[in-house]
Structure prediction request, 313 residues.
Amino acid sequence: MKYFEDIAVGERTAVGRHTFTADEIKAFAARFDPQPFHVDERAAERSHFGRLAASGWHSAVVWMRLMVAERRRQAEAARGRREPVAAMGPALGLRDLKWLKPVYVDDTVSYESEVIETRVSESRPNLGLLTVRSTGVNQHGELVISFVSTTFVERRPVNT
Amino acid sequence: MPKRHWEDFKPGAVDVYGPRLVTREEIVAFAAEFDPQPMHLDETAAAGTLLGGLAASGWHSCCILMRIIADGFINETSSMGAPGVDEVRWLKPLRPGTRVRVRTTVLETRASNSRPEIGFVKCLFELLDEQDGVLTTLTSPLMIRRRQAGAGA
Prediction:
């Protein structure tokens, strides 16, 4: 990751994409969100979803997994250029999480994140706060998930 | 059949669900799968971060909260899921070995303008530790089927 000072509002990251299989939708929901329309095809057919749909938390945590992998790639590339890698995290929270369309079996969601605000932390002036809007779009081009999260990021050391 | 419908939720009502013991094993397993940052995977690496030691991914806290309320009341409610979450705040780290509960407060209820068969119940969910310390707060409108479509609440 870049230092706080090197990150600009409007920067976008293609985070990656993921196809949600029936098995993983059911396995995730059985652990964390066992509502009938996330764990059982027949119950899902009788529900307002019409067919098996992923838990909204599932489509959110897949973003996190892809984002961590993307940050790791960026960090390795920076190390390859002998550039320092800034520490990131943890996040303070999120807001405006919207599940706009269901994620159905075998849907592929492509995620993107855009920096919408940068500011120095008031409580920890040696750290910056990065606010990012993340979105996921399915294979039909429909927005399925959107949220805004805020994360600590290291500031550039004064001496470098 | 669901026992609770939209009409059964009243603003100001408070319920507590759980407890559930959160183990080190499940914190590390969740992180390895969904949020493999060192602060969620390894004590030594976590000690040098702002979390000051191994702690669950914030997403894991949300998922644990979801599971507790699903078992606590949502699966006996005519729930249609949630259109989203207004806000999540990760206030304190969730440490291994914590026995968590969820305090649910009904903030407001309103009938859907466009769909007479459903209503919304906005809830504040607080993930609590054994000392009633609030680890995570989550505010979300639940979409719930009405017992009588379009009738007054």
